[in-house]
Each structure stands twice: as C-alpha cells, then as structure tokens.
From TrEMBL:
InterPro entries: MBL (IPR050698), RibonucZ/Hydroxyglut_hydro (IPR036866), Xnuc_lig_assoc (IPR026360). It comes from Aquimarina rubra. This is Ligase-associated DNA damage response exonuclease. It comes from the Bacteria. Its EC number is 3.1.-.-. Keywords: Exonuclease, Hydrolase, Ligase, Nuclease. The keyword Nuclease applies. It is an enzyme of class 3 (hydrolase). The keyword Nucleotide-binding does not apply. One of its GO terms (molecular function) is exonuclease activity.
C-alpha cells in the first residue's frame, strides 16, 4: 500500500489530508491557508481563511467580509498534529511560503515568490525542506532580470523625456503588487503621479504599511491638460479603453517580466517595455531550489515541463503538477477593477 503524500494535488487545490486543510484552493473549501492576495491564489467562497496578518486587509478588500485569521512569519500553528508556518516569499506585500511538517517530513509550498529584495515586501527567506513546490512562471534561461535600481532609473528617465516632449506617461502595472512597487520608486520631483481607481483603492489599503509618494486619483473631472508631463499608473485592463483615450497625447509602457520578449510588447501595442517582475527569473529559481536542500521538486505553473526536465538532469527528483495558478498571467484585474476603468 503506497503512502499518502503529505500534500496532494486535487480538483479543489493542494490538500493536506492529515490536517483536512487546503493551500490556496481554487474551489470553495471549509479551511484554506492562503499565501497572498492575487486572484488566482486567494479566491472567494471558503468558510475559513488563514494567512499572514499583513495580507488580511488586502484579501478583505478583494473578497469582502470573510472569516480570516492572521499569523506572524515563523509562527507555528498546529492543525490535527500537523505543523504549519508562514515564511516570507518576497513576491508582493503580505506574500508567504507555507511550511508543512508532519511525521518528520517537511514540505514547502511557495505560492509565488522572488528572491530579489524589492524594498517593499519582506525579503524572501529560504526554508529547508524535503519537498519543494515551486512556480516556474519564468522558467526559461532567456529570463534574466536586471537589478531593479537600474530598471527604475530607466523608467524615471523615460518619464522625464516624455515630459520634455509635452506628453503624458502611462505606465501599466497590476493593481496589487506591481503598481505599489512602481509608485515606491517613481521620482515625484519629475511631476505629479496620477492613478486609476483600481490602483488608488488598493494602494490606500497598503499605505498604512508602506511609505508611498503622493498620488492623485483620476476622475471624470480630470482634464487631459492636467496630465500632460505627468505620470499615470493604470492596470493593464485600462489599455485601449475609453478611459485612456482622453489622455492624448500620451506614451505607454508596461512593466512586466514578459517585456523580455519584444513580441509581447508589439502584441500588446505598448510603446515601451520595462522588464520588471515579481517572480523569480531562471537563475533565481535555481538558487532558491538549491538553498532549500530539497531533493524532491514539484513545478506547478509556468514552463513546468522544460524546467522539470532540466532539474532531473541536475539530479533532482522533479515532476510537474497541474494547478489553476497562472503566475504573472493571472495577476489580472477583477471584475470590480474592470468596472472602474470608466471612472
């Protein structure tokens, strides 16, 4: 009789049978342990949520009045003799890895993560384990990130050039995580920073935790003359909308790991691409895996087959599992955010 794995991949999500609890489930369950606030990892409909305490206001903003309890990083909580704890994932504010220990066996589920310190989220910390469940959103050698200091220098230079040409700069970034990272490092000495409603609302949830530059919400009363020379931060869903057309003359840019490929910029009809991701690049993934000391690696979303094949060549016991997590592809705006495009 084969041993039941400590964590199983089911049609509802990643399940710990010994504790009768799910990790980032994609279908409604009784008890869910949540890594972070992005829509593919924290979904509506669970009876009870457990997450890192800084993630609580974020998921409540998105999901409404839910039953949720918060834990500190490194704090052990026990469910049916199974030990759980959250550890920094460095992905976005409030993001965590989940450590699971039972019968001398340790698994770590990363959710989404990055090892570069962005100066906003608590930096990623490697957690020693036997089995490591990793995303590989950017699990190809072609993905190699430039240090963020250089990227933001380029972004601010681009903004200044646009200002000198009498144009509005529109920078697209996901409303949770990417937008706040952009805001943190934009240079307000260049001009004013305007925001789309979805980004303003989410940033206001996070402002008590992080010091951000002043922002101005764009409303129906905002005139395009006010925007010229200044910066507008908007979600990708705003691109091509009636909301954005009144801002002519403008120049657009996107901050994403996918901007590594020029074709991605062309397909999205973006004028400029800045390679900036809240996920690991190829080297980051390999470094993270090595530092865990794990021998068994499960890849969940991204370039799973290619990445797992490479890990097996390195000597790891590596395999893939299908999930409904989509990494940077899934950090899309919710229906609520879409409706705010016209405001």
């Amino acid at each position: 009789m084969s041993k039941i794995p400590l964590l199983q991949f089911t049609d509802k999500g990643i399940y710990c049978a010994a504790a009768k609890v799910y990790l980032d489930p994609w279908k409604p369950v009784d008890k869910a342990i949540i890594t972070h606030g992005h829509a593919d990892h924290s979904r509506w409909g669970h009876k009870q949520y457990i997450t890192h305490h800084t993630n609580i206001p974020i998921i409540k903003h998105r999901l409404g009045d839910i039953k949720v309890s918060g834990k500190e990083y490194g704090e052990t909580f026990i469910i049916n003799n199974v030990k759980f704890s959250f550890h920094p994932a460095g992905h976005i504010i409030g993001s965590s890895q989940i450590r699971v220990e039972h019968n001398d066996e340790i698994w770590v589920f990363t959710g989404d993560y990055k090892i570069e310190d962005d100066g906003i989220s608590v930096p990623y910390e490697p957690v020693t384990c036997h089995t490591f469940i990793t995303e590989c959103t950017f699990g190809l050698p072609a993905f190699k990130w430039t240090p963020q200091k250089e990227v933001f220098s380029d972004i601010n230079q681009w903004w200044e050039e646009n200002k000198n040409e009498g144009k509005t700069s529109i920078l697209f970034g996901y409303s949770l995580g990417k937008a706040q990272r952009l805001l943190k490092y934009l240079n307000p000495e260049i001009g004013k920073i305007y925001t789309h409603g979805a980004i303003e609302n989410m940033t206001n949830v996070i402002r008590p935790m992080i010091d951000f530059p002043e922002t101005t919400l764009i409303t129906k009363e905002t005139k395009k003359e006010e925007l010229i020379g200044n910066m507008v931060i908007a979600p990708p869903s705003a691109h091509g909308s009636t909301w954005i057309r009144k801002m002519v003359p403008y120049v657009t840019a996107s901050a994403s790991g996918w901007m590594t490929f020029r074709g991605a910029r062309r397909r999205r009809a973006i004028d400029k691409g800045f390679v900036l991701s809240d996920h690991c690049d190829w080297d980051g993934l390999l470094t993270a895996i090595k530092e865990t000391g794990a021998t068994k690696i499960i890849s969940t979303h991204g370039y799973t087959e290619i990445f797992s094949k490479y890990l097996r060549e390195l000597g790891y016991d590596a395999r893939t599992e299908k999930t409904q997590y989509e990494g940077e592809l899934a950090e899309i705006e919710t229906q609520k955010e879409e409706s705010e495009v016209s405001t």
